[in-house]
Amino acid sequence: MPAVSSNSGAGGGHGASMKSWFAATVIVIGFIVGGVAIIYWNWPIFWVGVGIVVVGSVFGAAVGIMNEVTEYGGSGGGGDPESASY
Questions:
Q1: Domain membership flag for residue 46
Q2: Model pTM?
Q3: How many domains does the chain have?
Q4: Which of 19, 56, 50 is nearest to 32 (CA)?
């Protein structure tokens, strides 16, 4: 399969911009911090993890992270799944 750039219309449903990757990484780090805090029964650190997830989510919403995803891949807004090329 040939390499596909993140802005081309073929091959995938995610735009994968750096700001989206950063927002997703911050959210995952928050979940990890919160999960480790639950294992060690440390509630203040758990709430720090929740705060990190909230900050990452607000940043993701601000940069339009969900605007880069299409239903069937490519640059269109969905369409007929029967005619979609994968």
A1: yes
A2: 0.65
A3: 1
A4: 50
Calpha distance 5→75 (Å, rounded): 12
- Rounded Cα distance between 85 and 1, Å, is 13
Name the nearest CA neighbour of 50 among 36, 33, 64: 33
Helices (H), the chain: 18-39, 43-62
Structural domain boundaries, residue 52: 14-64
Question: Using alpha carbons only, how large is the chain's radius of gyration in Å?
Answer: 17
Does residue 20 form part of some domain? yes
Per-residue pLDDT reduced to its tens digit, 12-60: 555 678 888 899 999 999 999 999 999 999 999 999 999 999 999 999 9
Euclidean distance between CA atoms 12 and 8, whole angstroms: 9
CB atoms within 10 A of CB 28: 13
Query: Which is nearest to 14 in space by CA: 70, 59, 61?
Result: 70
Two structure tokens written together for 12 = 């995938």
